[in-house]
Amino acid sequence: MTNWKVILTIAKTHLWTKLKSTATATLGVTFGIGAYITLVSFMTGLNTMLDDLVLNQTPHIHIYNEIEPSEKQPVTLYDKYKNALNVVHSVKPKQSQKKIHNALPILYYLKNDKSVKGATPQLWAQIFYLSGSIELGGSLVGVDIMEEVRLSNIDDNIIDGSPEALKNYDNGIVLGAGLAKKMSLWVGDRVQVSTISGAIFPLKIVGIYQSGIAEIDNAHSLVNLKTVQRILGDAENYITDINVKLLNIADAVPMSKKLELQFDIKATDINEANAQFETGSNIRNLITYAVSITLLIVAGFGIYNILNMLIYEKMKDIAILKATGFSGRDVQLIFMSQAMIIGLIGGLMGLVLGFGLSVMIDNAPFDTEALPTITTYPVNFEFGYYIIGISFALLSTFIAGYLPSNKAKRIDPVRIIRGT
User: Fold this and answer.
1) pTM of the entire structure?
2) How far is residue 270's CA from residue 281's CA, in Å, rounded to a whole number?
3) How large is the angle between the packed helices 328-363 and 4-17, nearest 10 degrees?
4) Between these two residues, 364 and 288, which has the higher pLDDT value?
5) pLDDT-derived band at 289, boundaries 50, 70, 90
6) Dihedral sign of CA atoms 246, 247, 253, 256 in order
7) Residue 359 and residue 211 in one domain
8) Hey, is 258 helix, strand or coil?
9) 3-state secondary structure at position 129
10) If you average pLDDT over residues 7-18, what whole number do you get?
């Protein structure tokens, strides 16, 4: 029966007598785990921020009428050419309205679907922002602002003013930050917008909107849905887009296909809309984890080298232990215990170091005009990373300790004592 008290006492004595080597091995684990925690926390926090920046502004399903060529051309309607190979050049898009047919019944259907968190109507209008004699092209987006606030982070992007101000003022506008800067306008000022037909409408600025994406901030502004309908002279059922948020994002792909077939409209799911961004995000995560694992492996090799040297230095001690009745398994357990003690202490110190550095990064000021709502660097304090860190510390030290301890197990004490 293994006497763990004696084995642990001998292991601690070995570690204490070679304090310099023990401290070096422990610090190797500490800095390896600390670097892993810091890197993975910061990089995943940064990736999450970038994902949120794009994905929070993208609906799970976007419904609209897509302008595209007709699948059936007039030549295919003639029976004479029905079974022939018809080649048509310079195919023009079919004439269709931008508005969604039966938009209000579709909204009603979506809002009563148990898998849908919410559906918001939108009306996009191409307009000109008038600043003296200068005309700036852009878009006016009519929204149900309070529903947008409920379903997205749009209120975080309103850096001046409030969503409630837009809701309570029919002729209000939340102006894009890029537009406001170009025209030197602030909350409380008035801006004139002109439709393509030349009609001019004055609107009062009740907020400034900054998404962090220059294309949006330099061209888009938010107004009430009814305001855009009034500017365009359209009815209350004139809606060009419907944005759908689901309770489970995994339902986006099948539901988008179902909606296309059911209502004969274009429904783009979030994966299709952000395919390129998703690929970039996956690559960033892959690089993060690859570098993190490399740091842990390097720390493990350091422990192996130190324990290997420790065994060579303790050859006579091993011989004496075996000569006094300790079995090869007992000797192996002694050196394995040393490795696990180094791994446990170094791992815990690494977690503390990684957490401390992560807190420092999290409190470091992050000042950029593109993201005014983010004031410090993003850090992800995911508890799972700390579990992975301590688990890898113990696993790496176990493996690093097993190989040299297995060698110590097979040492012949007679040859060591004789010096042969």
Assistant:
1) 0.66
2) 14
3) 60
4) 364
5) confident
6) negative
7) no
8) helix
9) strand
10) 78
